[in-house]
Predict the structure.
Amino acid sequence: MGMRTPWLFLFFALLGFRLMSASSSAQLIVRVKLEHERVVKYEPIIARLMIQNQTSHSLTIGGEGAEAHLECSIRQLRGSFVSGYPDKPFPVMEVPRNTTVTNELNLLHYFDLRRAGCYAVEFQIQWSGKSFAPGKVYLDVLEGAEIHSMVDYVEEAQGFLKYSLISMNRESGERLFLNIEDEEKKLCYAMYDIGPSLRLYKPSLLIDTSGFVHILHQSAPTRMIHSIFGRDGQIVQQEFYRFAGGQPRLQEQPDGAVIVQGATLIEVE
């Protein structure tokens, strides 16, 4: 019996070491979820990073002298790693003890994801010589289908901007986007998700004399939405209409005002 004691001691010592390691690893739990796994090119790519701090003290992630650091690598499937912007570090994150904090990061601000393709995204937090990683998530960046476009000179941009209506299937339905870009300078000024779209009536696009962008599209079987944007792609107003017979359309008046014909304005709470 006396000869077996060292082996038993060694067994329980190893078991205790493993239990301690598991407990230490469980002190920080990291999860990540993409808002959309399919996005149209230039659309914001929102990653929700959930950090659960099960330790007895607050944790600072990022920043000068911080004890923990957030890292992210993005690789195109069957391709190379995506370049990050070195002058745009992740924001400092404060995670109080025994607390779960969720941070939203727009990956377009940190990585050059302007090309269509399939990507693998991997986050990890480096802390006390250990790596806490939630595993990879996968992203499809799509070109989308251009339905309609117009080009207009914009003095503020000192050049011509292209206004395009882009369609893409996502989440069992079709969505409509407004893209504003300078093709010559390869700059995207805005990519706005207008919302669900049906194709019984083709969306229309018009720029009025004041430079406002008007879009009329079908959002439901009997409903149209008239969206008004500034030249910078910021939404100004949305009006809802019900079919009134005939072909709904945008009509510019002699005084420059734009109205919707072939539909009746309705109020939506």
About this structure: The first helix runs from residue 5 to 25. Residues 144-266 form one domain. The longest strand covers residues 159-170. Residues 1-5, 8-25 have pLDDT under 50 and may be disordered.
